[in-house]
């Protein structure tokens, strides 16, 4: 059919936000090729209203494989089901999120359908004249951005970083088709079953979902100086972030790291101090709604992306901002 497919994710019958982010990526690709966009969901107990939201967010068709055995993510079974769908419908390309499940699922599927896979993409496009999927991702330790294509095998497949694009607005005038499919028993891997779930202790910092992130880099000089940023974050009920340099120095743990080697974020407000703005860091924050940068180097790369920049010594600027915010709080503003 040469459609563009995106793989939706669900938990307990509710769609995850990354499902809509992928649709915004897929919509651009499908429009460029003048083809349809299809969202594929494997799960159980998902309502028609929930599936319809995939249409409202950009899908032309939704394929939902509905079975209680798909409620929990088991890669052996999920990969069998997705591979069977690909062999049946022959999509042009398949996009999944670079989440823990997407990063696990897609390599299995790539092997099963004998095609290539580019992981952790930050940009996607369609090559004029060939319709090859152009997949851009960091390479060589993040020092370059490489564009990769798979000219000899189909479907063309990629995983995309969460928060690297914004969902399309909800459009309840959009129409599309929802196809409910049953699960073939031979695709279920009965050797494996879910026995429990244990949350990773590092997930106490949900920086990807935060509306306000206050981050520091090498310019913070030492760990103790992050207290300034912590005070600022508390004024906004935000969370702390850090550049790779700061994390490598042990000033904050890895779950706080922002950038291609850490977390890609999309908060309403991103404030960074002492961060020069490497290409890897900028790629991890570019979908932030507002970016405020504080740096004493007026030529720092971060100012190319910032909506508001302050050129100055952060150890003078941040205490003044904190003092002003504290005064506003006392005045009841």
From TrEMBL:
Its cofactor is FAD. Signal peptide: none annotated. InterPro entries: DHS-like_NAD/FAD-binding_dom (IPR029035), ETF_a/b_N (IPR014730), ETF_a/FixB (IPR001308), ETF_alpha_N (IPR033947), ETF_asu_C (IPR014731), Rossmann-like_a/b/a_fold (IPR014729). CDD domains: ETF_alpha. One of its GO terms (molecular function) is electron transfer activity. One of its GO terms (biological process) is fatty acid beta-oxidation using acyl-CoA dehydrogenase. FAD binds at residues 243-244, 257-261, 274-281, 295. The keyword Flavoprotein applies. Residues 4-191 form the Electron transfer flavoprotein alpha/beta-subunit N-terminal domain. Keywords: FAD, Flavoprotein. The keyword Cytoplasm does not apply. Binds 1 FAD per dimer. Belongs to the ETF alpha-subunit/FixB family. This is Electron transfer flavoprotein alpha subunit. It comes from Anaerosolibacter carboniphilus.
């Amino acid at each position: 059919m040469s459609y563009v497919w995106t793989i939706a994710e669900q938990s307990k019958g509710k769609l995850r936000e990354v499902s809509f982010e992928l649709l915004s990526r897929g919509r651009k690709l499908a429009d460029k090729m003048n083809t349809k966009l299809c969202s594929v969901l494997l799960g159980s107990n998902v309502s028609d209203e929930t599936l319809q939201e995939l249409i409202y967010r950009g899908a032309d068709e939704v394929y939902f494989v509905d079975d209680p055995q798909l409620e929990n993510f088991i890669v052996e079974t999920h990969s069998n089901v997705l591979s069977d769908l690909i062999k049946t419908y022959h999509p042009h390309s398949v996009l999944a999120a670079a989440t823990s499940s997407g990063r696990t699922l897609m390599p299995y599927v790539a092997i099963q359908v004998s095609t290539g896979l580019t992981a952790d993409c930050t940009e996607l496009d369609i090559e004029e004249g060939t319709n090859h999927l152009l997949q851009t991702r960091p390479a060589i330790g993040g020092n370059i951005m490489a564009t990769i294509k798979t000219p000899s095998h189909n479907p063309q497949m990629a995983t995309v970083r969460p928060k690297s694009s914004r969902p399309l607005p909800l459009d309840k005038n959009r129409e599309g088709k929802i196809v409910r499919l049953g699960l073939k028993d031979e695709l279920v891997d009965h050797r494996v079953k879910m026995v429990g779930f244990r949350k990773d202790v590092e997930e106490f910092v949900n920086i990807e979902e935060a509306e306000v992130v206050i981050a520091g880099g090498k310019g913070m000089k030492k760990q103790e100086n992050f207290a300034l940023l912590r005070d600022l974050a508390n004024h906004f009920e935000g969370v702390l972030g850090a550049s790779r340099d700061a994390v490598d120095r042990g000033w904050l743990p890895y779950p706080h790291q922002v950038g291609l080697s850490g977390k890609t974020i999309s908060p309403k407000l991103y404030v960074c101090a002492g961060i020069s703005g490497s290409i890897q860091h900028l790629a991890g924050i570019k979908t932030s709604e507002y970016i405020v940068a504080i740096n004493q180097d007026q030529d720092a790369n971060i100012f190319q992306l910032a909506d508001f920049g302050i050129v100055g010594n952060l150890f003078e600027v941040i205490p003044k901002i904190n003092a002003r915010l504290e005064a506003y709080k006392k005045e009841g503003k």
